[in-house]
Design goal:
Helix content is about 25%, strand content about 35%. It has about 475 residues and is an alpha/beta fold. The chain folds into three domains: about 270 residues, Spore Coat Polysaccharide Biosynthesis Protein SpsA, Chain A, CATH 3.90.550.10; about 50 residues, no CATH class; about 110 residues, Sandwich (Jelly Rolls), CATH 2.60.120. Strands 1, 2, 3, 4, 6, 7, 8, 9, 10, 11 and 12 form an eleven-stranded mixed beta sheet that branches. Helix 1 links the parallel strand 1 and strand 2. The radius of gyration is 24 Å and the shape is globular. The chain starts with 6 loop residues before the first strand and ends in a 14-residue tail after the last strand.
């Protein structure tokens, strides 16, 4: 089969999204943020990709911990049955490693002449027709062995984006995020475009360029792939990268590692309604302002409040006599920031991470392959959770050394393995799991199973878990997320 015109979208789903904390967290990063229409940024990237002419397969590179969330998001919108393959990273090594892994995988699966369209999962593009035309131009250029980037025609002097100096489709140079004064110079010259971080090239072209400009990254990724597990079945393919070997891969962005060094780079200038949603100000711009300039998601009670962005899914937010603020409320964290300082939210995220505070990593409600759990309350030697298990799903067979658990069924029926005993627990019934007992919770019914779990013990850390059997293949990784 001639694969010279075969287009494979590659969706890169990762990153911390630290500037969009507290909604974006390490295990719920920016691509999973839902917009007012109910769709996540990741889902919008997927829909954008499958609507491209001729696309039948999509490759997604994401973190192993995000696989099930990614799969769930895709399943919600994949009505056309597009085939999705995955490359699962054990941890981040930046975009050069992700692109290298995707290129090597595509070359092996589809041939070296297949064209890759690299799309970050956390961008907004509002003009789909213009986007498709830009991709068509990029595809043609890619087939001439060019590395193609997309340059957004700027609408103003933006300091949060990198720039591309260009002459027609020729890239003259890449420029780092500028000062406001420099950005104004770039705009007035008419020769600069915003760097969208989207790319198009054949698998062979990017592999050859990486051999020249970052051979250490390419060779380390190739060694990792050769030693990694490839799983196929049930309409999907997963390449799970080996943690010890992936740790040897140098971290660098594809921009620094290749694009800024190569002499074979072309740019497609375009106006596609693009934004990378890099701050809460940009996120607020997606919402229509009220008569006072406030952009609101959720319930509010405001007086003499102007030009604020306020988001809350659960609680009423009130504000009096303030303006130009960002107010973001979640179940376990509240952010209040001046709009002029909103780019510095990442310092809060990094500070929480340095303290190993759970709020940088998880929300109070955590999505797992089998359902969700929500931490309701915790104190000295106890923690209370609400656990919801999907119909037909089960938690892993596991044990905890340092805590006991008391399960109370509030809705549905539970099948419980407790040591050597298997029993069914109905609504308004309970069971007790002593520390050190192997146990499993299953939902054999057709409706969601909801239980209240009361943990007690001297240590209630989420890393006190040993898995023995798991329907979602998490025993080897033995990740630090409970259940």
């Amino acid at each position: 089969m001639d694969n010279s015109s075969l287009l494979i979208p590659v969706i890169l789903c990762g990153g911390a999204g630290s500037r969009l904390w507290p909604v974006s967290r390490e295990l719920h990063p920016k691509p999973f943020m839902r917009l007012s229409d109910g769709q996540s940024l990741l889902q919008k990237a997927f829909i954008r990709a499958i609507y491209l002419p001729g696309v039948t397969d999509i490759l997604t590179v994401t973190n192993r911990e995000l696989f099930f969330k990614t799969q769930d998001d895709f399943d919600e919108v994949n009505s056309s049955g597009i085939t999705v393959s995955y490359i699962l990273e054990p941890f981040g090594r930046n975009t050069a490693a992700a692109v290298a892994a995707a290129a090597l995988r595509i070359a092996a699966e589809y041939g070296e002449d297949a064209v890759m369209l690299v799309l970050p999962a956390d961008h907004i593009i509002t003009d789909e027709a213009a986007f498709q035309q830009a991709v068509l131009r990029a595809n043609r250029l890619a087939q001439t062995c060019k590395l193609v980037t997309f340059g957004i025609r700027p609408t103003g002097p933006e300091t949060g984006y990198g720039y591309i100096e260009a002459k027609s489709e020729e890239v003259l140079r890449f420029v780092e995020k500028p000062t406001l004064e420099k950005a104004k110079e770039y705009i007035s010259s008419g020769n600069f475009l915003w760097n969208a971080g989207m790319f198009c090239f054949t698998a062979n072209s990017i592999i050859r360029q990486m051999e020249t400009h970052c051979a250490d990254i390419l060779h380390a990724v190739r060694q990792c792939i050769d030693a990694s597990s490839l799983k196929t079945g049930q309409g999907l393919t997963q390449l799970e990268l080996s943690p010890p070997l992936f740790r040897n891969v140098p971290g660098d962005s594809i921009d620094y590692a290749v694009m800024e060094k190569s002499k074979d780079v072309a740019v497609v200038p375009c106006s596609i309604g693009w934004s990378d949603i890099g701050s809460w100000t940009a996120f607020g711009d997606l919402m229509a302002p009220d008569q006072d300039g406030n952009r609101i998601h959720g319930e509010t009670a405001l007086y003499n409040t102007r030009n604020c962005t306020i988001c809350s899914d659960d609680r009423l937010v009130s504000a009096v006599g303030v303006e130009n603020l960002i107010i973001i409320d979640t179940a376990d964290a509240l952010l209040v920031a001046e709009k002029s300082d909103v780019q510095h939210v990442r310092h809060i995220y990094n500070g929480l991470k340095n303290r190993n505070h759970e709020a940088y990593k998880l929300h109070r409600t955590v999505h797992r392959p089998w359902g969700t759990y929500t931490t309701l309350e915790e104190g000295d030697n106890f923690k209370i959770k609400r656990i919801e298990v999907d119909p037909g799903a089960s938690l892993s067979l596991q044990l905890h050394y340092h805590r006991s658990e008391h399960w109370i069924v509030v809705s549905g029926m539970a099948k419980v393995t407790n040591g050597d005993t298997v029993l069914f627990v109905n609504t308004n019934e309970s069971t007790y799991i002593p520390a050190g007992h192997r146990h499993r919770l299953e939902n054999p019914g057709m409706l969601p199973l909801i239980i209240i779990e009361v943990q007690s013990g001297q240590y209630l850390g989420e890393d006190d878990i040993v898995r023995f059997e798991d329907a979602y293949d998490r025993t080897a990784a033995n990740d630090a997320i409970t259940h």
